[in-house]
Amino acid sequence: MCLLAAFIKAGWARLCIRVCMLRITLDYLPYMEIEMKRTVTVIGAALIGTVLIAAACGSKTGSNANVATGKVIKTATVGNLTATLSNSTGQLQQGDQKVMLAFTDSSGKPVEVGAVSLNFHMAQMGPMAEMNDATTLTTTGTPGVYRGNVNIEVAGEWQGQLAYEGPAGNGKTTFTVTAR
């Protein structure tokens, strides 16, 4: 009989503890609900703010977008597109430099052309060997706009050899540009 009484007392004790815990939880439930609503509101506001900032800072692909960064060095027609080579000075110079290359349609909107190559070629002159200075191009956040690095070996007249292949088809052109 003592063993049975001990089990009953232990059972009641556990039940009392559970009821007390439930009571405490129910007492704090309204406060927990308010805190949860505050947390959800703060997270929601932060998410909306992030989306708005991303939209405001995103790439501009409309006709008013500033496609070419810097001053124009040279423009060339490639099929039905216009290629614009530019940099910070508007002048190709001897030595290492950064350039931008943009492809636009007749309305001025950027056009994604896919894989692009730009090489600067100078023919052999007397004892000086032929030179080819390739531009290393990478894509930017704007379709049809590429950022590049090139090292022009010597000042003088160069032939820019431009080619692309991709969504806009294939295109090739050459243009003359002087490096100072």
Derived from helix and strand composition plus strand pairing, the structural class reads alpha+beta
Which percent bin holds the helix content? 25-40%
CATH superfamily of the largest domain: Macroglobulin (MG2) domain
**Percent range for β-strand residues:** 35-45%
Quaternary state of this entry equals single chain
Compressed to H and E, one letter per element, the order equals HEEEEEEEE
Domain module count = 2
CATH topology of the largest domain: Immunoglobulin-like
Secondary structure tally, helices = 1
Instruction: Tell me, rounded to a whole number, the average pLDDT.
Output: 80
**Radius of gyration using CA atoms only:** 34 Å
The CATH C-level name of the largest domain is Mainly Beta
Low-pLDDT residue spans:
59-68
Distance between the termini: 109 Å
Q: Which word captures the global form?
A: elongated
- Please give the number of β-strands: 8
Q: For the largest beta sheet, what order do the strands appear in spatially? A: 1-2-3-6-5-4-7-8
CATH architecture of the largest domain: Sandwich
Largest sheet: 8 strands, antiparallel
How does the SSE layout of this entry go?
Blueprint: H1 2-57, E1 71-78, E2 81-87, E3 95-104, E4 115-122, E5 131-139, E6 145-152, E7 156-166, E8 169-179
Antiparallel strand pairs: 1-2, 2-3, 3-6, 4-5, 4-7, 5-6, 7-8
Model description:
This protein is α+β, with helices and mostly antiparallel strands and 180 residues long. The chain has one helix at residues 2-57, and strands at residues 71-78, 81-87, 95-104, 115-122, 131-139, 145-152, 156-166, 169-179. It has an eight-stranded antiparallel beta sheet, with no helix packed on it. The chain is elongated and about 110 Å long.
